[in-house]
């Protein structure tokens, strides 16, 4: 049996960010820095994430890292104000699930729920709505989902095999894991000490009916390749009105 979710109505004030991994698909950006420090529209990814979390009342953030950790440490040490941010460095690669479990040891209150973010996502949606949805569904963990946008163009064909037009990179009627979670503290000991939670913990919890989905209605972008850096930068610049 898994631990029951909390019945607290208090806001969630702590979070984890996974900033490990060598991000080989983001080279040359990651030759000298970790993925979380790659700049999109003139700012490191982690700055966007911290600003978003702080804007929703998060007071403590634990960042799990490994590759080029000193670059991230120097950057975070220069920040002024905002949430309390601490860095935990993996002695060896632990995988995403292991990194989450390790980072959770740095939380001030291990009996309280916490947000968790992959270090390569840019998104803006109301975390208080995610929290309310999570508690209403009474799950142990809630996964934020983003509607899938294909990188391929779609050909529109009628029933006579005549091509009617083309749609470039449309949103498809399927949902993907957006790399943003809300966890009850009871999930922490269920995470693998080493390995990926998406191939172990999550399937087990799904079979038990303990995973909840929250569909994002807002901006989301994964930054996994050099092409993503360029396109995400263009999107953010456009949202800012060209600034």
From TrEMBL:
UniProt cross-references to SUPFAM superfamilies, sorted A to Z: Nucleotide-diphospho-sugar transferases
Annotated ranges, domain Nucleotidyl transferase: 15-237
Superkingdom as given in the UniProt entry: Bacteria
Listed name of the protein: Nucleotidyltransferase family protein
The species this protein was found in: Nocardiopsis codii
